[in-house]
Amino acid sequence: MVKAHQYSVNSSNKKIECIRRTVGGNSSKIHMISDSCANPIDFIVSEGQVHDSKIANQLLEISDAEVLIADRAYHAEKTRKKLKDKCIQAVIPKKKNAFDKTNEEFDSYLYKIRHLIKNLFARLKQFRSITTRYDKKKSNFSSVIYLGCSFIWVKI
Questions:
Q1: Which terminus of the chain has a smaller tally of CB atoms within 10 A, N or C?
Q2: Which of 36, 1, 2 shows the shortest CA–CA distance to 114?
Q3: How many Cα atoms are found within 13 Å in the side-chain-facing hemisphere of 8?
Q4: In the prediction, which pLDDT does 102 show?
Q5: Cα(96)–Cα(147) distance, integer angstroms
Q6: Per DSSP, which regions of the chain are E strands?
Q7: Are 53 and 73 in contact (CB under 8 A)?
Q8: Cα 129-133-139 angle, rounded to 5 deg
Q9: What pLDDT does 5 receive?
Q10: Beta strand pairing status for 25-34 and 40-47?
Q11: Distance separating alpha carbons of residues 33 and 44, to the nearest angstrom
Q12: What pLDDT score was predicted for residue 59?
């Protein structure tokens, strides 16, 4: 979740620029795909109030992974079915209010590795222009994220 600066929200069409109003104010979300060493591969910027499971299908089209490790927000039957069709192992815990609470394919050891993506976002949010979105245009904001990801790849 990225907070949008007050001057970045004066765009004529906020939906195209991926800035929407949430409880915490105007915001955007960055959905990231990374490799096993927590290096960013690709990302999608969405509006702040859009649920993560809606973006998951777009992320799966980009990815050619063998294993997907995600949090509970990505738990949806459509997502799990698409993962099964693409022969990708899903390491996603079931929601607490899920009807079927059995989760045989869940690997708790692999799920512990998910902290690497949290570390990736912590490194990315060291860049002030990513932490607080100053850009009105989605393309400009995406360019700043690509620049931040390139610094992470170079390990500066």
A1: C
A2: 36
A3: 26
A4: 66
A5: 38
A6: 2-4, 20-22, 25-34, 40-47, 67-69, 89-91, 132-133
A7: yes
A8: 95
A9: 61
A10: antiparallel
A11: 9
A12: 83
CATH number at residue 53: 3.30.420
Amino acid of residue 35: D
Cβ–Cβ < 8 Å for 79, 56: yes
**pTM value > 0.90:** no
Q: Which pLDDT value is given to residue 124?
A: 92
pLDDT of residue 9: 58
| Confidence (pLDDT) at 1 | 67
> What pLDDT shows up at residue 113?
87
CA nearest 6: which of 145, 133, 150? Answer: 133
Phi first, then psi, for residue 133 (nearest 5°) are -70, 110
* Backbone dihedral angles phi then psi of residue 135, each to the nearest 5 degrees: -85, 140
Place of tokens 């360019």: 143
Burial class (CB in 10 A: 0-12, 13-18, 19+), 32: middle
Calpha distance 142→130 (Å, rounded): 9
- In angstroms, the Cα distances linking 141 to 54, 105, 110, 127 are 21, 37, 32, 12
Q: How many domains does the chain contain in total?
A: 1
Query: Which domain range does residue 91 map to?
Result: 2-154
